[in-house]
Amino acid sequence: xxxxxxxxxxxxxxxxxxxxxxxxxxxxxxxxxxxxxxxxxxxxxxxxxxxxxxxxxxxxxxxxxxxxxxxxxxxxxxxxxxxxxxxxxxxxxxxxxxxxxxxxxxxxxxxxxxxxxxxxxxxxxxxxxxxxxxxxxxxxxxxxxxxxxxxxxxxxxxxxxxxxxxxxxxxxxxxxxxxxxxxxxxxxxxxxxxxxxxxxxxxxxxxxxxxxxxxxxxxxxxxxxxxxxxxxxxxxxxxx
Length: 240
Fold this sequence. Notes:
It is built from 10 helices and 4 strands. By secondary structure, it is mainly α. The strands form 2 sheets. The chain has a two-stranded antiparallel ribbon. A two-stranded antiparallel ribbon has the order 3-4.
């Protein structure tokens, strides 16, 4: 597995990184998994996450080919651990489909669909439809109401290590951005400028390390509950 010091901010999944390097040169209707060409099962997808998994792993939620990425959505060990996946299993392939989707939604809140740069496009994954999926029932949660008033971040945040609209609004306020509680690319660029990272709008290991240094979290490049806790404390003390 490559060190995050050797590359700019990286996506979660093996397939996303390999296809980016290879220019996306994979034949339509077939996917490469563990060195074998297998047929795509995208047509059998039940949710947008199943479509991502069909692209990443041919919907094999327990896959471990020894390449350093695990499960249906091809989590790296660092990402799975950093976003709290080890409360369910040591590596993603040992967790249930629903548990993997739950952790993927936490990644989506921070990194956006770009965490799966190729497969998110093929699956049509967005922040809105990815978070709308209920991992445990297979149904959809109520979609985001774009007509609601902006989220405010007045007063202290609850320091609970959970990324949510109020924490996102605090980040937006820190960056001088309109506060709606959802981090878009411009919000992420503003955050990157605040922490001294390259403002490319993608939250990956390099940006996460810069943020961790800023807020006093362990500098490991994985944005998980501990980083969020330190961020919430920083926002309470310095921004809100």
